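Handout, tutorial session.
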Amino acid sequence: MTAKINLIAINIGNSRIQLGVYVEGELTRNEHFDHENLTACVEGVVSGWQELGDRSHMAIAIASVHEALAQKLASAIRDQLSVEVNHVGSDMPVPIGTQLNPETITGVDRLLNAAAAFDTIKQACIVIDAGTAVTIDFVDGDGTFQGGAIAPGARLQLQCLHEQTDALPELIFAQPDVDPFGRSTAQAMLRGVYHGIRGMVWKLVEQYAEAYEAYPTVIATGGDAQTLFHDDELIDRIVPDLTLHGIMVTARDALVGQTDEDIDVRRN
């Protein structure tokens, strides 16, 4: 029987930090923190580490699109726990192949989502991440990340409309009302952003399916996925914890096959 990873998984995104605790490979806790609230995040890591107790195959892994913040958080965790903090990418390669231009540097979050999705369904899939940016990526039936598309996310679009014009208001993203016409400026903005993203996703999914000559499973994740896609027949699954699952898959692939001595967390 394959051993299960016991893990503190940390995902530092563009807007927030997500913290997950995996006990024997199962997610038991999922918390979110603002970038400015590192103290609370470290406290969550410490309590999660205590929750894991003294199990085998224990690790802490960070994936980040903000390297400076990742280093700062890792240093704070080491100060509190005196344990090794693994960085996804440099310490733990994401276990997924790619078919991209040689000079391409792909965000670790996109690769983690792809690895998590393929690990879950073991077949070709399209992964949509609706956060600060919206990414629509394709993973083929062999589990190879083929790339995709990147666009501004809903909140970024609304922020740009407000900051780059004189009259458009600052809005919090939400699903627009059911009226087919935006009868106020706010509703017109929400309708444009909401349906613009959904329409883009439909068009790209059609292109990917046509190129692949089959219709893949479509999985959505990210902070705005529920608002955007909860009633969209195109989306097969909404998985809020997909990136955390990718970190778990990466840590499992890197560590569980090694001996306990190899993955010693170096308690002092």
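The second record follows below. Compare its token runs with those of the first.
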Amino acid sequence: MPAKVSAVKRGEAAAPALAKAPKPVAVPRLAHGNDDAGFDRLIYERVRLGIMSALAMNEQLAFNELKSLFDVSDGNLSAHARKLEEAGYVVCTKSFEARRPKSVYRITQVGKKALLRYLEHIEAVIKATRCS
């Protein structure tokens, strides 16, 4: 007697004989309702997260103080700070001191809220990871 052959239509895959893989665990949603509200890609970058965190802990910091904290070049720090400034997360006040330019940065209320949302999101991810 010939062996029974099952036909598979074009575009369809044969059912795998292996056991089903467990479903991946999703990142928990925040109470804000907007899934992207917690994970701010602008803050995610190391230097920008550092700038935001340092300014959240200090009333203001000068450019050179930020530069020494993160061991980055002038151009690198300037580019990151400008992105945060364009987003409204920080403000920069420029002046001259002893004929030398001085830039002082402060975090805004919008920046504080964005940082808090980001930190809440990261905490939720950590909590979900530890519980699984």
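Points raised in discussion: Residues 109-131 form the longest helix (23 residues).
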